[in-house]
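fyi for ur records
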Amino acid sequence: MNASLASLKENRPLRNLVLLAAVTFVMLVAAIIAVVSDQSSVRASFVPHPLFDGLSRQLERVDRIVYTSSRGMAGQEVVTINRGSDGVWSVASRSGYPANAELVRNVLLGVGNMEAYEPRTANPEWHRNLGLLKPEDIGSAIRVELFSGEERLAGLLVGKVPERAVDVKGEGLIYVRRDGEDQTWLARGRLPVYKQAFDWLDMTFVGIPREEVARVTLWAGTERPVVMERASPEAADFTIANLPAGRASRGGPVVNQAAAALLDATFEDVAPADTLDMPDNGPRVVVETFDGLKLTMHMGGQGGALWAKFAAEGESEEAALRAEDLNTRLSAWTYKLPQEVSGQLTQTMDVLTREAGPADAMFGPAE
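which gave:
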């Protein structure tokens, strides 16, 4: 050990190198301590606060919500959601079709209660990195605005979700900045950020429970309708009531799928009812319940898709009330059906049945 120290003293370049390394190490440790201490000081001094002071007490005044996002070189996508005099929210670009009330509520509470959790950069050159470049600058930020009449109560640019997507309490985190300001924030809160008008629609559709359905008729009013029915609410399967001679059903699962296709369906788009005239000889589906409700759906094509209009009636007092509710909700609109749904609802007798064989004659119709 003494020999090594003696050698180090005699070797001046080596001694200087060791001293330089020691000094560098000490300075590095000091720098780390200084940075950690500075960050701790900032965290200790910063108190999370609402992004829009007092907004949470003004949410009842909001009568318009506007979402703006970039479509690249095609400009901006603007979704406007309005509150009517009856308090119902609707989507402007879908001719005032009702909006999803839960989503609207989440927007109002999300913006009203959002907190500035930690400050981030105020340098505009770094906005893109946080997803906070404005949509009119072909940025990925979504602008969310709340209005009361012509007064803008809040304007928020919403950016990326950080890798640490929740705080220690499980609250959502997202990068934001107030519209018109350069200061960015890691914010605490949640709100929907859908860019397409369709995503804001109330997707409540036919809504008739399968267990209430007694009969479903495809191609109603034609020479070859397909009538699928159940004998009682307890019956598990639909059967084809008007099987042609020499034909057998393709089985319960196939028939059930066709009979329930409209009951389980949603829609892909919507337009006012007078947008499209349905042909008299177009596909028609009739759904009848055990309590006397009758819902008729007329279908017609436009743009390679099938659209549908609805009309309801009821035989009993209870069924008449249900029919009135369905007509209020559906009759003013025409709905674009998903391809798989329209495919099920336009199946013919030839598709849902097969040629009967010896086994069918021996054991009866195969349902």
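The chain has a mean pLDDT of 87. thats all i got for now
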